[in-house]
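We treat protein structure as text, and this decision shapes the records that our systems exchange. This encoding replaces a full spatial description with a residue-level series of whole-number codes. Below, we set out a record of this kind in full and without editing:
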Amino acid sequence: MATTQPTPIGRILLKNVRLSFAQGLFEATVIPGADATAKPKYNCGLIVPPDHPQYNALIEKQKAVAREKWTGKDKAGKPLWEGVYLALEKKDRLAVHDGDAKPSYDGYPGNFFLSPSALENAAPTVIDLDRSLLSAKLGRPYSGCYVNAAIELWAQDNNFGQRVNARLRGIQFFADGDSFSAGRPADADEFESVEEGAGADDFA
């Protein structure tokens, strides 16, 4: 009889959050400026307003993975994870970031954001409301729309340092929104119907 694997404590399905940098969902790339050993990744931005109903749960997930990773007590007898978490928070090395630090990015000021990613061999699932698969050529999801996002927070402690990261597992288009500066492709109904044989003078 197969055993059921426990759900990782860092997993969460964020509902109705805003998407940015949507192009990273369909093509794995190396982030500009990364070192020579960096691997291509899928990525996007997720914008979470401070009054989002899942914001507190998201922060609790962030703390839970830190608690699981850094066990034991520090020299003062306090839980080790608390000190590590506070240090990571001060250095902005947690998965949830303050959007005010990105004032030139559409939708970021006044909100929080995550930048989840996935390695090239673990492409995220990207689906529509009816769960059908989406692709870049379909024009959605696009930067500025609203999505449901399946992510997994995890704690890193290796030669690259200590952090709490977000892994991108899947994105579901949820609702239209004002597109960000990158824009979205035009919908077919934005164009007028053109009769066969029409010339340039017909559109003057």
About this structure: The longest strand covers residues 161-175. Residues 182-204 have pLDDT under 50 and may be disordered. The CA atoms of residues 154 and 165 lie 5 Å apart. Residues 11-28+40-180 form a domain with the OB fold (Dihydrolipoamide Acetyltransferase, E2P) fold (CATH 2.40.50.140).
